[in-house]
Amino acid sequence: MGKMRDKLKQYLKPGYYEKYDYHWGMTIDLDRCTGCEACVVACQAENNLPIVGEKRFKERREIKWLRVERYWEGEYPNIKLRFIPMLCQHCDQAPCETPCPVAATYHNQDGLNTQIYNRCIGTRTCAVYCPYEVRYFNWFTYKWDEPLEQQLNPDVTVREKGVMEKCTFCIQRIRQAKDHAKDDGRRRVRDGEVTPACVQSCPTKAMVFGDLNDPNSRVSKMYKNPRGYKVLEELNTLPKIVYLKKADSDV
Amino acid sequence: MNKISRRDFLKFIGAGSIGAGAGLLYGKSTKKTVELLLPQVIPPEDYSPGIATWYNTICQQCGAGCGISVRTREGRAKKIEGNSNHPVNQGRLCAMGQAGLNALYNPDRIKSPLKRTGERGNNSFTEISWDEALTTLGSRLGNLKIQKHGDSVYLLTGGVRGHIDKLFATFMEAMGSDNYFHYDFTHPFALYEANRIIFGEEIIPYYDINNANYVLSFGADYLGTWISPVHYSLAYGHLRQGRGNQRGKCVQIEPRMSLTGANADEWITCLPGTEGLLAMGLAHVIMNDGGYTGSDQNEWMQAVTPYSPSVVSRQTGVEVRDITRLAHEFMKHQPGLAIGGGHTEGNTNAVASLTAINALNYLSGNLGKPGGIIFNPEPAFPNMSIKRQANYTQMLELITAMTNKGVDILLVHNTNPVFNLPPAAKFIEALHGVPLLVSLSSFMDETTALADLVLPTHTYLEAWGDDIPEPGVGFPIASISQPVVKPVYNTQSIGDIILALAHQIGGELPVALPWTQTEDYLKDSWKKIYQERTPVDATAGFDDFWKAALMSGVWGENKTRPLIKFDRLSNNQIQKIHVSQPSFAGDEKDYPFVLLPYLTQTFYDGRGANLPWLQELPDPMTSIVYSSWVELNPKTANRLGISEGDVLEVQSIAGTIRAPAFLYPAIRPDVIAMPIGQGHSHYGRYAQNRGVNPMTILAPEVDDTNGALAWSATRVRITKTEERIRIIKTDGVTRTLGRQILGNNSVHT
């Protein structure tokens, strides 16, 4: 454990990630987002999320790495509905990482909060610590009705009972882009070369994903948008997703 | 993940894809014995283990005609994404489109041709061979043709376009029958008619939301279900944040907040069915403030006189100051768009309302300019399918013919009238008069369950076809649909079935349709496009052209339509612009609420209900999954002592259904709303026996002008029952309660 603590101290040092190639981040423009949930299905398709069935849904055992939350403002007739896509924020000081007794969840060198499935023993502590409630536990081993399993993405593990899972920023796509870059003889992945499934599908282009270490990447520029804020910033989790507030109309 | 055994591993890959597993094992075993395991003796050229192959094709989940790229690995489709070459969706795709994989690999697809064995509707079928199926149908059709009774063959399809539509038409013509119809419940009949009245063409133009500064939508849920949601969503994103400081404003007028309403800057309600009156009120303000100075000014003045803001305010329930303010804003922030759809299209005055909304575009001079309404040039090949859409009244004619034994064979393809017609149409009863009902469908839907012969079709991911998106994108495009995987079951593509039937029947049919494969038919049809329209690169032969078209998935031509000048409308046209009060089935005293059935982003008109990803996708507005519900205003609920989950009896003059109550904060207190899509009695394990279908209590009200079904014109009463169930939804607390989840106070840009 001492070793782990040392490591952790290292992570928390400012500038730790800068020496690595990438520091992945995302922005979500709530002024563009319409709440259509295309991203939710994209995530389900890409990451082999199970079809849990009505009964499990009723028990609130659903698994959606990315969900769209909705908040009503005001009362009829002056009422508004606001949407906010909620997924793992890949916090740089992630509260979920410290309590894991087996270090199944950790921060990788790209700044991603990752989950090691075969290390996870299912204590579910991380899910309790996560203030964004974006960690999902496999209470059951889910089955795909034949032949639906033919759709499963071979690049992503199918999880079993007893394992915690969460958004990975589509790490398999990042991996693939890095491989492509390597094949091309490039040291770095180009901006825009990696798009997680949700970002790729978004019909309004509300989501932007990229490398925060690269000051010229689109996401770095969007990070500086004056409408930007981080959800539950006050907890000092240093989330890596910046949301851009809904704007008011000038008219 | 625990230790994976080899057995588990194979299970994940899929029992059917031993080849894939073997391929990977092969990689491991090469070091020792090269000869032992080969994935395939001669693998297909586009098949290499571990490497994904992408195919461009067309999404056919709704009528928007988006282009898709399907990722396949080892011969299995893995993911659907938007085709970034395609001008309609530009690489993006909605939830429904992405769930197409659930249709392809649906466990409840019809796996081989079926023949009915028991009574109709008993769901007793026996599997037969394709030979038997085609011979049975072919000989019946052939006999009718020989007896010169070809006209007693009717073909009813969903919304096919392009050359498959032409194939159907040619087939039916050669059969000697002109009874070829489309039936799509979601078809915007009123919009086509209204556009014909004002623009003189029965078309849907290009609504340039992209460049608009003001979008005034009367019920059109353009971000959710209206016409081409992905395209309009792209445009909406651009309107919001893609133009620097010029952020456009969106106003939504509707009795129940739709997804578009939630995203609008302003959401205004008016009495159901009075959207057109409100539009006339705005036109009145525009005319009286001198906002329009065309040469037909006097005629317009006359047309809008009865709709003064005070009168309209009484009729619509919208305050006078809002009417004048909206009119002023609309004129001030040009270019702007006035569009109508959704429930505006479901009333008895729908055509008149949409005509009035069109008039706003005319008066503000938004026709033919960026940010307004742009007219599309001639499509790549004629789009006849719009003309073939049968509305409710035309469907009634078909039903009458069925009842009077005028229909010997009814072929139904990809449409589900049993589910999507109100029971008052008596479609099921009329089937007694039809000796042979043939279903050409991939799924056992309600109509297919009543069929005598079922010829299962490929899903769109397995079949050849093509499409011209309607509405167009301002320049002519056409896209090709190609198979991305081998057929999963013993099914055939609809094109191949028709061609096989043509050969089976003989006579002039094989002359008119000499092809045996849809692919060849398509290629020959596209040769015409190649010859007529590609002089730019004439050096490349057709094969290169065809390959290029297949690879990019879409073909386009840089050609726009010259601007049509609308200097003045004829007196006759302007006089037609007159909106009357909507009428509703059921007395207001007995039936105090107007029922608004609405299309959902997930199930659309019910066709998506068999896809598990969509069943598990929380409804965007309520977060409810797996069921039906009745939306009512919390105040109404409070008055009636109803809380969430109380099962309500919803009764109209046409029938009664039961569904749990959901307190929806953004709906008028005098209306209730229900999603369409659930309530299937068939249609596979994910859809069956789940929720209710509000279509079953709709009264057969029709539009005054064009006879289309007025599906929002039924009044209902609600009664609380003793029963109470827990609605399954993902939302917990739906207020931020002071937490800064959505950011601090909103800022101006």
Task: Describe what this molecule looks like in 3D.
The complex is a heterodimer of chains A (251) and B (749). With 251 residues, chain A is of the alpha+beta class. Chain A has a single domain (2-244), classed as Alpha-Beta Plaits. Helix content of chain A is 22%, strand content 18%. In chain A, strand 2 and strand 3 form a beta hairpin. The longest helix of chain A is centred in the C-terminal third of the chain and has 13 residues, at 171-183. The N and C termini of chain A lie far apart (59 Å). Chain B is globular. In chain B, strand 10 (249-253), helix 9 (259-263) and strand 11 (266-268) form a beta-alpha-beta unit. Residues 6-33 of chain B have low confidence and may be disordered. In chain B, the strands form 6 sheets. Chain B has a 7-stranded mixed β-sheet with strand order 5-4-16-15-14-6-7. Chain B has 25 helices and 25 strands. Chain B folds into 4 domains: 1-51, no CATH class; 114-184 and 382-457 and 487-527, Rossmann fold; 189-374, Dimethylsulfoxide Reductase, domain 2, CATH 3.40.228; 593-724, Barwin-like endoglucanases, CATH 2.40.40. At the A-B interface, helix 2, helix 3, strand 2, strand 3 and helix 6 of A face helix 1, strand 3, helix 4, helix 8 and helix 9 of B.
